[in-house]
Amino acid sequence: MSADTPNDTPTITFADLGLPESLLKALTEVGYETPSPIQAATIPPLLEGRDVLGQAQTGTGKTAAFALPILADIDPKLAAPQALVLAPTRELAIQVSEAFQKYAHHIPGFHVLPIYGGQSYTPQLQALRRGVQVVVGTPGRVIDHLNRGSLDLSRLKTLVLDEADEMLRMGFVDDVEAVVKKCPDDRRIALFSATMPAPIKRIAQTYLRNPVEVAIKSTTTTGDNIRQRFWLVSGLHKLDAITRILEAETYDAMIVFARTKLGTEELAEKLAARGIAAAAINGDMDQKSRERTIQRLKDGQLDVLVATDVAARGLDVERITHVLNYDIPYDTESYVHRIGRTGRAGRKGEAILFVTPRERGMLRAIERATRQQITPMQLPSAQDVNQQRVSRFRDRINSALNGSDAELFRGLLEDFENERNVPMVEIAAALAQLVQGDTPMFLPNDPPPPPPRERHEKPARNDDYAPRPRDGERAPRPPRPAHDGPDVGMQTYRIEVGHEHRVKPGNIVGAIANEAELEARYIGRVDIRDDYTLVDLPEGMPPELLQFLGNVRVAGRPIRMRLATDDDLNQPTRRREFGHKPRFDDDGGARPRKPGGFKPGGFNKRPGGFNKSGPKKPRDPR
Predict the structure, then answer these.
(1) Which stretches within 402-450 are classed as H helix?
(2) Beta-carbon count within 10 A of 241 CB
(3) Per-residue pLDDT tens over the stretch 484-502
(4) Could you write out the DSSP letters of every residue in 151-189?
(5) Are strands 557-558 and 553-554 parallel, antiparallel or unpaired?
(6) Domain spans of the chain?
(7) Alpha carbon of 249 to those of 88, 238, 324, 380: distances in Å?
(8) N or C: which end of the chain has fewer CB within 10 A?
(9) What is the sign, positive or negative, of the torsion defined by CA atoms of 196, 201, 203, 204?
């Protein structure tokens, strides 16, 4: 049975879908009014006990599409897993668990447990012994609990395979099938996937019984009410640039997106040190801390929220007028989700994107995917910022003139003026200096622009953003045909785990992806050797992040990450590669690598956008 949903928002309500009153009350409290297309198409058959095969992108509302019918069928008095949700990453597992908890607010005795690699087994075992009704986990950790006997699926009613194509790309398809085989025969299965590659179709045909098929067409377009601009990073450091924008732009509240958890915290601290009311949210924060920070933003106690993609999902704050991409996202879907935090409910919004010269290919890919042009912006000059500072200084004086204690201080200053014979204007200047502190009142003037190029220097290609050749350099070759790999330079690193430690590519990629919050598709080739492994990672990773990653443990060992040397690259050894097969010379032997790194597995350096066939999410760090 197939159900292709319409693009228009359905006119039915959640009450029309047959959900119990406890769930309808929770949905009202969280502000949900009408079901999304996938919810309207999926909830009724799941309530009837049917299997469902859903094709839908992230952000279409599929979590509620399977969570609500599961909760409608839950027996809170039975302290045993009645539903199991498999998710590809720990971030998604936590997000889905939080959604269950939110929807089950009025179901007494309900418990949901996220289980994933990288977390101690002890709290997970304790929670399973106490009893939970829903388990949300990554495939590897779920298999571990099944092998230990700590996860009992004998009372399971529903199995959900969320983002199945991501689990396939991350190498979990065998684990997924192993879990399905351990479920009772009378369970119902809901399988959701953004794409339907052959292995996913085979799983659906093998294990789903006469499923209802739901296909939701996604659109990667941005709202017309959001003005999109980019600044080509040059000259100024990005921190100085964002400070100028925050001082010169008229905004109510702003979300700034950084690529890593460490990046959010560092940037928020530096902005706060410059007098900006900023705070960070990321995947390391517990739910209560996250909610407190967001409430401070809603109440006007914060003006800037620095966030990662994962932490900002589902965030809807009316005050947000600007979104600034401090680090460019690695895929177009993330960009659309990011800037969707502003311009909501028909309001005007502003989106600003920082683009380094190396990231111009990503900019073009975003423009192609969204079918909208992002216009270049002129960074506010030092004079613009200084004018704003003078204006704010005068506004503060005007506000203070009408303060309740103005009369008291006026008398004190008149006494001081008469006693010391100091003009009032000099007293006022001294007080202003006390208020300003050590922070300079004005920015120094910008340096003059560089002299124009000589006429004989011609652009390398007909492209507004193409780099020009320097003196003595060859002009770049004409662009190759469009390709799906993002325009990112790579460096090769050595980590101290290999075949003798029984490590797998998924263990390495999952650990790095989760700890660095770096999408797995941007981890290049993983070349496992006898006692060490070579991994390709994007250029320009902060030293602090590399130092942090060096202490991450894989297969029970710290990986001690460092840049690879020529000896590491060319050392003959038994090796297995993940991402690309080794090339061979004329004699059939493996051709040694050249110094300077690998061609990454998830993408290459050709311009033209992103590789849609590579993994998009972090992997299970088991």
Answers:
(1) 406-420, 424-436
(2) 20
(3) 444 457 889 999 999 888 8
(4) ---TT--EEEETTHHHHHHTT-HHHHHHHHHTS-TT-EE
(5) antiparallel
(6) 2-215, 226-381, 386-436, 485-622
(7) 39, 16, 12, 9
(8) N
(9) positive
What is 2-215's CATH number? Answer: 3.40.50.300
| The residue count for the chain | 622
Q: Is the dihedral of CA 407, 411, 412, 413 positive or negative?
A: positive
In the structure encoding, which two tokens stand for residue 155, read together?
Answer: 């009372």
226-381 and 2-215 share a CATH fold: yes
485-622: CATH, from 3.40.50.80, 3.30.1330.60, 3.30.70.330, 3.30.460.10? 3.30.70.330
The letter for the amino acid at 306 is V
Rounded-to-integer distance, Cα 298 and Cα 279, Å: 13
Measured CA distances, 213 to 38, 56, 64, 202, 209 (Å): 11, 11, 17, 15, 11
Tell me whether strands 304-307 and 375-376 are parallel, antiparallel or unpaired.
unpaired
Using the predicted structure, report yes or no on whether residue 4 has a pLDDT greater than 50: no
Axis-axis angle for helices 332-339, 360-370 (nearest 10)? 70
In this prediction, residue 302 carries a pLDDT of 94
522, 584 Cβ separation under 8 angstroms: no
Q: Which tokens sit at 368?
A: 């192609």
Residue 132 region by backbone torsions, left for phi larger than 0, else alpha for psi between -120 and 50, else beta: beta
Burial readout 545-578 (b: 16 or more C-beta within 10 A, e: otherwise) = beebbeebebbeeebebeebeeebbeeeeebebb
- The residue assigned the tokens 């004998």 is 154
Per-residue tokens: 286 = 């517990």
Amino acid at 448: P
N- to C-terminal Cα separation, the chain = 38
Q: Rounded distance, CA 261 to CA 279, Å?
A: 12
Assess if CATH 3.40.50.300 describes domain 226-381. yes
Kindly state the tokens that stand for 577.
Answer: 């590669």
Q: Give the whole-angstrom CA distance, residue 572 versus residue 592.
A: 8
pLDDT in tens, 117-150: 878 889 999 999 999 999 999 999 999 999 999 9
Torsion of CA 512, 144, 121, 84, to 10 degrees: 90
518 and 618 in contact (C-beta within 8 Å)? yes
- Selection from 96, 145, 97, 98 nearest residue 117 by Cα: 145
